[in-house]
Amino acid sequence: MSAADNRDRSGSLHSDEKDVGYPIQHQTLSKDTTQDPESNQISEDIDAGFDTAEVKRVRRKVDRRLLPILGALYSIALIDRTNLSAARIAGAGVELRLTAGTNYSIPLLMFFVPYILLEMPSNLLLRKIGAAKQLSFIAFCWGIVMIGQGFVKSWQQLTVTRALVGAFEAGFFPACVWLISTWYVRRESQVRMSAFYLISVGISGFSNIIAYAMSLIRVSDRTFRGWRWIFILEGLATVVLAVIAYFVILDFPDKAAEKGFLTIAERDMILTRIQRDRGDAKPDALTWAKAGKYATDIKVWLYGLMFMCTTMPTYAFAYFLPVILRGLGYSIRDSFLLGAAPYVVAMVGAFGSAVIADRYVIRMPLLIVQCLLTIAGLGMLFVRTNRQVQLAGAFLGVWGANANIPFVLNFSQNNVAGQSKKSFTSVIVIMFGGIGGIFASLAFNEKDAPLYRKGLYATLACQAFNVLCGVGFTLYFLSANKKIRAGRKVVDDRPGFTYVI
User: 46-289+296-485: CATH homologous superfamily?
Assistant: First the structure.
């Protein structure tokens, strides 16, 4: 591409083009890029000079290629990490003695130890190795381990395999969040983040039904009971999907033209819109030095704590909903079948709130409402005399908790600038999500079955924290945005970058 091709309308060559090899127009961010949707300022700034139909066409092209494969892989990841509850009531609980003491909680907990520790190293390697290669490889590896999990003979062996699955899955979710955030401007991101996550929720919601069908498989060897097929067949599905993912997953947008997915003009349009929106289209690899700098930002840690308090109820429902339903008097079959229905409702409701969030460019008000939904649902589970009320509470709780997963993720990504800081933030936030899983594993103890009241109290406290934190962020960001527009504050060295509330 010639220098003449790289000049903007004034004829000057942008300095960043020499570094990255493509034109990035309109380097200065608008002061009202995201905060005034009714004025239509976002469209005027971000899409100026582009054909609206062409923008939509390219965006749909990216949607179709990026979101389904990541959503499908993450759905398998969710199934693989949470199918222990299904295996337990299908026979593993008796055969592996999971109902004794902490024999069930320890395998649940050990998944999260390597999961938390290995997230940062994995994200540091992502740009160097490439998204398709790295994500497909780690998915292939955890699929192999899942197959092996179908042959364990004791809860101790199960604990080892759970730790290995956690080690391989560690790099997947934060990489997906970072990768998706680099492809879309902020006003488009909530729907895409929710679509990615809700694809996985919808598919994994049916995992209990699938697991029930697998548990009915019988072979001539009576020692090889049906619960083992839950792990073996789901592991095989993971391996097959990982092979497909190698050929389908997109890399970062600046590399998309090199791989032949986008034309040069399509790539430049995507990168220009991103640059106008938040000023971070230029590749910016995460290093340990940058990570140390970003670690001083208290907001990143608060995002993490909010995500911990959000994942805690989702893991609790995933691990214990079939057990709770069984304790309410439902049969094994009905516990499996009813366990899927709340996730279908959650998928529909959460996607609706995501559409509203992007349409009006709001995040925190809806996040708080969904926390209140979770609180209401958990409160209904405390009712002891009406099983229908308890079941309705499970629907509300699963809806509110799962809807807030993509909301917290997207809220944290929307409010930091720079690819390396986005990468760091995704690692910290999802690391705390793993802590939420540990919290859920410990808070719901066998001696508290079948309603696990202590765990429910802990989950209620987490939601209350998120509401208070959400109110605090709202007040702080409103004040900060006034200072930014007055020229008295700059966020992440990007003048004009405003917070999304």
Answer: MFS general substrate transporter like domains (1.20.1250.20)
